[in-house]
Amino acid sequence: xxxxxxxxxxxxxxxxxxxxxxxxxxxxxxxxxxxxxxxxxxxxxxxxxxxxxxxxxxxxxxxxxxxxxxxxxxxxxxxxxxxxxxxxxxxxxxxxxxxxxxxxxxxxxxxxxxxxxxxxxxxxxxxxxxxxxxxxxxxxxxxxxxxxxxxxxxxxxx
Length: 158
Prior knowledge:
It holds the Pfam family Polyketide_cyc. By secondary structure, this protein is an alpha+beta fold. About 25% of the residues lie in helices and about 45% in strands.
């Protein structure tokens, strides 16, 4: 069984708000840092992404890969690698748990990465930890920061 890395963070928002940001793949380039493009290739009957193409630029690692997503209820999503140029495995999940009667959310991110080039397990785990920590920090900031109106949006009704 492949080793994985896991980390959690508490976000000051309801689980539905957190999952709304996680499920909005088109906006990933705005808050993830490493994702430069995201394109939903297929959706399920509920309109949730089933396959997403991501263009990643994380310095030394640049990759164009496709992930398959499985939604488990309203508070968990899992993904696995469909195709990639550099990766052999990219499996992960976000699991959300409501805290304080639903006012806050604990988000647990689990990730397993395996690259096609040889790499020490210790270095892979460190890379997974960096990816997870950046993703959780970006997610927390995105969810907790009030949305800014579009330029030119006066806030007046049309």
